[in-house]
Design brief:
This protein has helices at 3-16, 24-34, 37-43, 51-67. The chain is mostly helical and 68 residues long.
C-alpha cells in the first residue's frame, strides 16, 4: 500500500471514529505508527507540526526508496 493509499484509508476510518484521535499530535502519532516499517523507521525521530507535513515527508521517503 502506498502512502497515498494509506492516507486515504486513514482519513476514511477517522471519519467513523474521531474520538480516538482528538488532537493533531494524536493524528500524527497514529498516522506515523501505521506506516510501513521502513518508512516509520525513517520518520520516527522527526517532529512534525501537522499530519500534512508527515504525509509529505513519508511520500518523499517512499519516492527515494523506490528509486534505489
Amino acid at each position: 500500500m502506498t502512502v497515498l493509499d494509506y492516507e486515504r484509508r486513514f482519513h476514511d476510518l477517522f471519519l467513523f471514529a474521531p474520538q480516538f484521535v482528538t488532537t493533531e499530535q494524536q493524528i500524527i502519532d497514529r498516522l506515523r505508527d501505521g506506516l510501513r516499517q521502513e518508512l516509520r523507521q525513517g520518520l520516527v525521530a522527526l517532529r512534525f507540526e501537522s499530519s500534512r507535513e508527515l504525509i509529505e515527508a513519508a511520500q518523499a521517503l517512499e519516492a527515494c526508496m523506490s528509486e534505489g
